[in-house]
Amino acid sequence: MLIGMICSLGAALCFGTASVLQAVATRAVEPGSGSGVDAALFLRAARQWRYLLGLGLDGAGFVLQIIALRHVPIYVVGAALAASLAVTAVVASRLMAVRLSPAEWCAVGVVCLGLLMLGLSAGEEGSGTGSLALKLGLLAVAALVLLVGAVAGGLPDGPRALVLGLGSGTGFGVVEVSVRLVDSPWDFANPALYALLLGGAAGFLLLTSALARGSVTVATAGLVLGETIGPAVVGVVWLGDRTREGLTWLAVTGFAVAVAGSLALSRFGEPEPPSAPAAPLG
């Protein structure tokens, strides 16, 4: 349990810091075609060293996420990943001179309180292995995320950001659940393995496109909701995730508090670059 919580928080730290680095790189390149699934935008952003460093932190965060999902319930990991927005806010206030309002500092504290409640109440991860129908369903959802992303590219900026954010969060949610259903990376007969790969790729492409144009707050709010609520329900209903005896109320409250605090910080899904050029980091 302790290992799982530490890895969850470590993943949040990696993802939150990566967002600050990727923010500057994404906005520094041409916006591209406007499609919801714009691989060319990713390739252009990847030429920026900050984006590559952010990708490295994303990779480290993903490894920590996998370890965490092997030790604690999905709802704990999902809430911790949403809490990476609190990390982004704090890092942005230090590295990019972004000013946090008193209400936003309060939201950071609320997120921490929610995670503490989850840590105290969470039980062991469920022992469910998932049915074939669940694995195929995850693969279908991952494919649907790509389709929705392609269609969303033609929407006005407001709804486009929301749809792409929800789609991205759903893709990352597929990854969270699929990790629990894959025993070996060489299990090529397992549909959950392909759901994991497709869901991660779709989520990343949609998130990059969502942050390149439209409301960052709206896109990130959709991301938070998509990557927390659905996976938590699947973990409890189909995979047997539970809380400690008599502490279900504390887990539900902690989950709601952590997600609510993260939503209050959703503008930090991609913090705006500072008005003056930042000094090189090295």
From TrEMBL:
Coiled-coil spans in chain: none
The protein's name in its UniProt record: Integral membrane protein
Lineage top rank: taxon: Bacteria
Organism: Streptomyces yangpuensis
Signal peptide: 1-23
Transmembrane segments: 49-67, 74-96, 102-120, 132-155, 161-179, 191-212, 218-239, 246-265
Entry keywords, A to Z: Membrane, Signal, Transmembrane, Transmembrane helix
SUPFAM superfamilies to which the protein is assigned, alphabetical: Multidrug resistance efflux transporter EmrE (SSF103481)
InterPro entries: EmrE-like (IPR037185)
Lineage: Bacteria, Bacillati, Actinomycetota, Actinomycetes, Kitasatosporales
